[in-house]
Amino acid sequence: MRLQSKLALFSAASKVIILLLLVVGLPLLVNKVALLNADERLLQKEAKMYKIIEEQGIGTFITGETGDAYGSYNLFREEFISLEEISSGKVVNSIENSLRKVDNEIVKYRVLSSTFDLGGKRYLLEIGRSLATIENNSKTLQGYALYFLAAVVLLTVFTDLAFSKILLRPLTLIVKRLQRVEHPSAFTPKDLKTTTTDFLYLNNTINAMMGQIQEAFQKEKEFIGNVSHELLTPVSILQSRLENLLSDPDTPDAMLEKLVDNLRTLHRLKNIIQALLLISRIENEQYLRNENVDIPQLAQEVAEEIKERAEAREVSLQVEMEADYTLEKANQSLLFTMLFNVVNNAIKYNKPEGTILVKGQPSAQGFELLVKDSGVGITQEQLPHIFSRFKRMHAPDGESHGLGLTIVNTIAHFHGIEVDVQSRHGEETTFRFRFPKANLPESVAFSGNWAQNRV
Length: 455
What we know:
HisK_dim/P_sf; EC 2.7.13.3; Heat Shock Protein 90; alpha+beta; 455 residues; phosphorelay sensor kinase activity; five-stranded antiparallel β-sheet; 51% helix; single chain; 8 helices; kinase
């Protein structure tokens, strides 16, 4: 999972936990706030009552006609005000919950009680508000508070996601730049525009590391190239001397067989050196890619070139093309070598009266070229290492696979071609070359054989 997604999930999870905690404690908090608000309203009404009494007198509420008490309830019994004369020794000043009987019904009220003296008499003022009304207001406040908190959580999650995206943008740029690098030699160090020191340190570290890798690759390429050039000269000299000895009539017959063996060894050594030199030149991009190569035609040319070897090994070679395809910006000579090496291996490690099928067909990715043989196959242990130049793979007959497949992989990578190998040991091997879609003509026919040739 990406770091940005993890940060967003962590932020959302933490806010959800906070929201749950608030939901648990919210009823108590809102109830407390509702009670404080009710008490504040009761105190305000108390102040208004005192002001009315001061301005209009106590007679407005208590007169000889109505007795020594006053009471007033609103229509739904939600609030009441009462005023009565009490004994002079009694003092009450409080706000508390109390039960009152109203029309034979017991109602819970939040009651403010206050005593005051006026005209030599003591009076008790009570102002009450229904607890049911306070609880209803509390539930309404809880609902609005929950909606508000949920909206805040969602808003902050999206805000954090946008902020984390902006914050991690330098890291995204570093990752994308590394993903675009197909080979260490193609990496170009760049400065990172950010004020985050961690990302600056990471970018500088990657630049330094890639510089060391580039230097190591360059030294390896130069070493292979130099050694190949230096070795070719003495090998060619030895080969000429041995050939001269073979052609000399004074050379004893007993030495001729040894000379032939030595020439054969020198020939293998020369092929290895030339293969390493070819790989080095391809990796150093010393070959041009300025040709448009017709892949079906190339397959036919390879088949024509190698048909005598197939006949000598009693191997049937068949070429089938289901579509036309042209690879642009390519090197035909290198592509010929790539396909030739694969078909040559299919002949070399095939069974007597075996078969080889070279098949071209459209695919969802573009165009595929398959080379399938009925040969000895490759073991599953060897399969992951067949393209490595540092591991020597051996066929059942004891002969080494050499650098042929390394050359195949290097040429394919040079042209942006994906290579996949599937094999069942003792039965068959299939090399699959996936060519890019950009080169596939729009008018390709996706059925029927383009050409078929049996050698």
